Amino acid sequence: MITPDKLSLNTATVREKWNLANCIEGCARHGIGGIAPWRDKLQEMGTDKAARAISDAGLRVSGLCRGGWFTAAGAITQDVIDDNRRAVDEAATINAECLVMVVGGLADNSRDLPHAHELVEEGLARTLEYARTVGVKIAIEPLHPMYAADRACVNTTRQALDICDRLGDGIGCAIDVYHVWWDHELRTQLKRAGRDRLMAFHICDWLDPTSNLLTDRGMMGDGVIDIPLLRSYAEEEGFNGLYEVEIFSAENWWIRDPDEVLETIIERGRTVC
Amino acid sequence: MITPDKLSLNTATVREKWNLANCIEGCARHGIGGIAPWRDKLQEMGTDKAARAISDAGLRVSGLCRGGWFTAAGAITQDVIDDNRRAVDEAATINAECLVMVVGGLADNSRDLPHAHELVEEGLARTLEYARTVGVKIAIEPLHPMYAADRACVNTTRQALDICDRLGDGIGCAIDVYHVWWDHELRTQLKRAGRDRLMAFHICDWLDPTSNLLTDRGMMGDGVIDIPLLRSYAEEEGFNGLYEVEIFSAENWWIRDPDEVLETIIERGRTVC
Known about the structure:
The structure is a homodimer.
Chain A: E1 7-10, H1 20-30, E2 34-36, H2 39-45, H3 47-56, E3 60-61, E4 64-68, H4 78-93, E5 99-102, H5 113-134, E6 138-140, H6 157-167, E7 171-176, H7 177-180, H8 186-197, E8 198-203, H9 227-236, E9 243-245, H10 258-271
Parallel strand pairs in A: 1-2, 1-9, 2-3, 4-5, 5-6, 6-7, 7-8, 8-9
C-alpha cells in the first residue's frame, strides 16, 4: 500500500486539462505528497512563482522532467548544453529531488547507435559538472527499449549504472516500472544502484495489449506489472522517496476529469501498489 | 552485402499470400539459399512432403519457427511438452539448423514474471533433453522487451545466454536484429555466445515511427538498424549461417505481390545489409 502522502503527481498524467497551478492545488486538496512538473508547465507558470506555490502547498518535488535530448543534432551543441543548464537551475529553484534525464535517441537520419551513446555520456558529464556546483542530482531514466530510436538510447538499469559508475558522484537513476518491469536483472541492478543512486521511482502499468507505443500506459492495477514486488526491490535498498505517477494515456486518463484521475490514483495506491 | 545464396526466407514474410510450396518454389526461382518455415505452413503442406520439396529445391533450412509457449497455463503441461517434442521431430525431419523457441510471456491473468521465468527454464530443459536424442539444436530467441507480457519473457541476449549456461550443450540463441538492436551490450554478449551458440540470425528493420507493436516491422534499409554493424558482431565470432528475413508487416509487405517482396529482399541484401 502507498498512502497519498507518499505519492507524487507527474504533471504529464493530467497534462491535457490542468496547468501547473491546477496540479499544485489539486495535489494539496487530495492530500498527495508531492509533484513532478514537466518543464513546459513550469515555464508557463514561471519558475519562481511555481516554486513559491509548491512550497506554500507543502509539496515535495520528486523530480523535474526533464533534461537530456543530447543526440538530435549528431553532436553536443551549445544550445543543448545551455538548455540543460537551465533545467538544472530550474530544478534547483523548485527544490527538486532530482533532474530526470531523457537522454535522446539516434540523431536525425542516423543509424549510429554507438555514436549516440558517446554523445549521451558527454552531455551527461557536462551537465553533471554544472549540477554539482548548484547541488542538483542528475537522474538518468532508462527508457523502454522501444524508445531507443526516438527518445532515449539508455534502455536498461544496467546501462544507466555503467554510465553512473564512470561519471561518479551526483548521478543516479530514475526508475519507472513501465520501462524496466520486464528486466530479469532488475533486482540485482537496483541492489547495485543502492540507496543513493535510486533517485526516483515512477509508477503506472503496462497494458496487455498495448495499442500505442507512446500514449497507452495504464493506471496502476490495470496492467501486468507487479508493482509491490518492484517497489520491494527498491525498498530493500532503503529507498524511501515518493512514488511518482506518470501516465501517458491519450485515449483514457488524459480525457477524464483530473479530479477523478487523482481519486483513482489514490485508491489504486491503497489497493494495488 | 549479403548475396541471395546467403539469404533465407522466413515464411512469415509472405504468409498472407504464399503457402509453403509457393515459398519453396519462389526461393528456388529467385536464387535464395534457404527457407525457415513456420509450423502452421509446414503442417498444412505435410512435414515429409515439405522435407522432400525443400531438399529437391536445394534449400537449406535456417530454422523452424517455433517451439516454446511454455507459460500460458501457469504450469508446464503435458500438452506443451508433447507439442514441443513434435516441433523437435519436425525440425529433424526437415533438417532444420535449429528449432527457434519463443518461450511465452506471463500466464493468463498473472503478474508473476519470476514464475514465468521458472516455467520457461523448465520447459526448455525438458525440450532440450529430447532434442539432444535426435540431434536438433534449440535456439532461444530473445524477443524485444515490448513482448515480455504476451509472447516471450526472455528479452535480452544476456538473459538467453544465462539460461544456456545453466542448461549446457545443444542450446543457443536465435538473434533477430529487430529484437536486440537497441542493446548496448549486444557485441559483448554475441562474443560470449560464441560461434556454436549463435544458431540463427534474423534481419528486418525497426521503423521510426513504429505504428503497431507487432505488425509494423520494416524491410532492411527502411529503418534505423545498422545491419552491417550487427552482422559484423556475429561474423567476428565466426557466424557463417544464413541471414533469415522475417518481416511482420500487415499494412505494407504482407499485402504486396510476394515476388516483388523477394526481389526487394534480394536488392536490399545487396545494397544495405
